[in-house]
Amino acid sequence: QVQLVESGGGLVQAGGSLRLSCAASGRTVSRYSMGWFHQAPGKEREFVAAIGWIGGFTSYADSVKGRFTISRDNAKNTVYLQLNSLKPEDTGVYYCAQSVGGSWKYWGQGTQVTVSS
Predict the structure, then answer these.
(1) 20 to 30 Å CA-CA from 39: which of 31, 48, 112, 116?
(2) If we measure between CA atoms, which residue out of 5, 10, 11 comes closest to residue 76?
(3) Which residues are CB-neighbours of 72 under 8 A, at least 6 positions away?
(4) Which residues pair with 12 in a beta bridge?
């Protein structure tokens, strides 16, 4: 049973920073690509960032390039998302996911981020 648990969300002013964590159990993060997704109020879930299991390859949505950084601590079986220069439009629920066979198969319950202007 794979379990992903996000934490680190909260309320922050525009321009501030947060670090989200995704702790995995049941399956090591080092052997699978991991991703973060964002769902704004009333909108569909959207891709934010991903980190590959080979060489730590990373990719980002254009809207967060230069502001967000995804990283992975294999020893802790945890994936992080550093959020800097936050904007009100970054408000929403952030979900962690693990890719299996080319699709995002396992999801966490999400953590709420609220950015005030």
Answers:
(1) 31
(2) 5
(3) 29, 30, 34, 51, 56, 78, 79, 80
(4) 115
